[in-house]
């Protein structure tokens, strides 16, 4: 078996010899054998779409969902595919029959697309938003306690929280949260749980039969090696009638429309099988990705062990190189295959730079400057974000990178970042 790292990348991934892919968390990366199978599925569709879409696609879809169901330990009848986790969250939040004044709790670290969906519900339907500040590093106990305090406070006010939206792993900075405990906490307080698990399948172990959230969505195209865009949406059986396709399409059924028993059991999956004309090659490539992980990578445990070890070793190495620190709590529960390291800001500029980070659009514009240099000159990309008084860089470990790749990306970022700090674009902001 080819060893994980650069050699594995050269043999099984489509990156060119100059590219150092250290940002798997954003878009994923697909192995070349899976890309080949994806193209075969697409060719099958394009060669005779009448045959493929009408007769062949649905059995293939169900087979792929059934295989993914084994991986997340779920009933296939509770699972459907959609394009991405943001679509999964929208599908739930824009279907569920909220009432004016219902309260949705979400953390300050919520993914922007999901947070904006909640804002839409507020503006359109009068939903009330509760935002919970989560300044990391926090222990798992602290996170759970903060959610519990809000639940109890709203219960005492006589208008309890209706739904809590939270992640499995926060996007930026990339931190694991105790989502398992939060799901249980929601049950204890009769709060609906909407879990944005964009970073989960292929990254953390899941048993949806054990957890039984109300709603859960996860991207297959991030950590599972499925081509974009393919995501999974889990809907607890008690909500099958109230969740509808996004967009609403040919298969629409009113919540109270009865079906005979066998059709009722598959009510969810039947409605989501065909929402509209599209390319379905990603949806039917899930089995191919899982087989690559099993047969070539050695299975989920082998992948997880290597990636976590590389993330921890790489994070420690970069923190030493930069003279900064890793964003981690005392328990060491925040790091997964993603690790966050404080960026190296020169001491004479640090106070002014961090002050500017609090102003609108500054970090976004700074990143645009730095990112272009990283991509065009150094052929790598290391994302950064401002959180809790510091600038953090997120490194993604994968089977195709090693600690040397972390070092290369760190050095490239530092060069690009220092050029920004020396630029007139930045200097004018100091005046």
Automatic annotation (TrEMBL):
The organism of origin for this protein: Kuraishia capsulata CBS 1993
Pfam families: Aminotran_5
Aminotransferase class V domain location: 66-341
Lineage: Eukaryota, Fungi, Dikarya, Ascomycota, Saccharomycotina
Signal sequence, renumbered to the chain: none
Name of the protein in question: Aminotransferase class V domain-containing protein
Keywords for the protein's UniProt record, in alphabetical order: Pyridoxal phosphate
Domain of life of the source: Eukaryota
């Amino acid at each position: 078996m080819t060893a994980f790292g650069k050699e594995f990348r050269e043999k099984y991934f489509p990156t060119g010899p100059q590219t150092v892919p250290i940002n798997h968390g954003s878009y994923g990366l697909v192995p070349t054998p899976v890309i080949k199978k994806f193209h075969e599925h697409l060719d099958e569709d394009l060669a005779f779409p009448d045959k493929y879409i009408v007769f062949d696609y649905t059995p293939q879809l169900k087979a792929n969902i059934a295989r993914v169901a084994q991986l997340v330990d779920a009933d296939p009848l509770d699972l459907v595919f959609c394009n991405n986790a943001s679509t999964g969250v929208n599908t739930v939040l824009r279907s569920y029959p909220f009432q004016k004044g219902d309260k949705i709790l979400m953390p300050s670290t919520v993914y922007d697309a999901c947070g904006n969906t909640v804002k839409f519900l507020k503006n359109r339907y009068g939903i009330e938003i509760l935002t919970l500040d989560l300044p990391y590093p926090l222990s798992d106990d602290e996170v759970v306690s903060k959610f519990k305090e809000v639940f109890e406070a709203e219960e005492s006010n006589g208008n309890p929280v209706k739904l809590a939206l939270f992640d499995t792993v926060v996007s930026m900075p990339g931190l694991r949260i105790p989502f398992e405990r939060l799901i249980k906490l929601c049950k204890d307080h009769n709060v609906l749980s909407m879990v944005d698990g964009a970073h989960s399948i292929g990254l953390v172990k899941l048993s949806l039969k054990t957890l039984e959230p109300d709603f859960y969505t996860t991207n297959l195209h991030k950590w599972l090696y499925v081509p974009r865009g393919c995501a999974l949406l889990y809907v607890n059986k008690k909500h099958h009638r109230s969740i509808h396709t996004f967009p609403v399409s040919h298969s629409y059924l009113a919540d109270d429309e009865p079906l005979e028993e066998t059709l009722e059991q598959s009510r969810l999956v039947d409605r989501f099988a065909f929402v509209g004309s599209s390319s379905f090659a990603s949806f039917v490539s899930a089995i191919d990705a899982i087989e690559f992980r099993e047969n070539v990578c050695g299975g989920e445990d082998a992948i997880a062990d290597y990636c976590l070890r590389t993330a921890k070793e790489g994070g420690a190495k970069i923190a030493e190189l930069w003279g900064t620190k890793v964003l981690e709590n005392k328990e060491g529960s925040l790091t997964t295959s993603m690790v966050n390291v404080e960026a190296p800001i020169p001491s004479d500029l640090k106070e002014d730079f961090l002050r500017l980070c609090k102003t609108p659009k500054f970090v976004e514009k700074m990143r645009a400057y730095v990112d272009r240099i990283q991509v065009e000159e150094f052929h790598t990309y290391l994302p950064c974000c401002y959180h809790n008084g510091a600038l953090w860089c997120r490194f993604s470990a994968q089977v195709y990178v090693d600690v040397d790749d972390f070092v290369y990306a760190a050095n490239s970022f530092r060069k690009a970042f220092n050029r920004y700090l020396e630029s007139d674009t930045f200097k004018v902001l100091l005046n």
